[in-house]
Amino acid sequence: MRTTSICADCRREVLWTITEAGKRLAVDPEPSPEGNAAVYRDGTGTRRSRRPSAEMPLMGWERLHVPHIANCPGRGRPPAVPARPGVLPPGVADLSAYRLKGRGRE
Q: Is 8 among the domain residues?
């Protein structure tokens, strides 16, 4: 698995980790003392992340990172939608009135 990629919303580099629950979490690539995700590499080289707690504090081999969603400048903006032409060509039907609204798509 590739561990770094580019955020689709803000075009910044993110570091991908696997949480204790087996989910993928994007974090900022640079460690930060304000972070709340402890990132480390396991024996296979996979980057893992967990939330430090009083029972399991930050270990010496872990670094704190900020989850990328917490400070992504592109988050919350609607995705760029290409402009529709004013007049459709002959033989092309406009299906926008028949598309399902909701279900996470607007």
A: yes
| Strand ranges inside the chain, DSSP E | 4-6, 13-18, 24-27, 37-41, 47-50, 63-65
Strand partners, 41: 47
Q: Is the pLDDT of residue 77 over 90?
A: no
**Separation CA 91–CA 13 (nearest Å):** 43
Is 16 part of any domain?
yes
pTM for this entry: 0.66
In a domain? residue 77: no
Is the separation of the CB atoms in 75 and 10 below 8 Å?
yes
Number of domains in the chain: 1
